[in-house]
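Throughout this chapter, every protein is written as a compact record of paired, labelled lines. The reader may check this reading against the record printed directly beneath this paragraph:
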Amino acid sequence: MRMNQLSRMWMMLLFTGVFSISFFNAQAQKISTSPSRLNYKVSPGGTQRGIITVANNSDIRQDFNVDFGDFDASRSGKSKFLEKGVLPRSCANWLSATPSLFTLDPGETQQVEVVMDVPQDSLAYMARWAVAYIRLAGERQAQQQGNDGLIVNLNQSYRFGVYIFQTPPSATYAKGEVTGFAQEDDMLVFSLKNTGETFLVCNSYLEFTNLQNGEMNRINSKQFTVLPASDRDVTFRVPSDLPAGKYSVLGVLDYGSRDEVEAAEIEITIPERSKQK
């Protein structure tokens, strides 16, 4: 049965033809880019420049190119990378890189100037985003042979992404809202939405209060960004060392406002450990 499954898999790849994969090996890990994100605040009709530094820490000469695309984020916070100009909130077409093609010898670095050139129109009055790709320019082709003898060509390419965020100075309203708080087995899902005009850099935490003795425990999340008009689920695992009993759990969303935070509360019961399967 397993041989049949492998055969079908290789046949599917053969009919699909040459396909590209992005992965990192020891060589690719010796390339570095910084920073991981560029933040722009450009008025309609304006221009701003940012710098990405690319370093070749490998022992061979490398060719690079720079281009741009879109990205979106799932409710769990995972990025989905898309073609340039696909999303309504894309600013990829407003970006250019100098140089966009360059070569680095071992140990060399290159500063890439990324220019945000915002048009003078109504589309420029809302927050937008994109991603800059720094790619190893030369794709390497390899062949892989399956158990049934079929050979598939693989185009191996490496790319590094830098997130780009553009917020016009007029977009100042920041607001996050809690949209749900629920228990799913031993996980607690804290749901929120960015209902403002800006990118929200958030922290959230849960506060467990034992309803029998009043003891409190806190779990903090890692800092995360929520795109405008986007939803996000922050998942927490119920601590395994909490004693059995009933708890009030307060979920708090801190999105950087000096005046307010958002919160929601639920009650849960932690059963005796010996009774859990």
The radius of gyration is 24 Å.
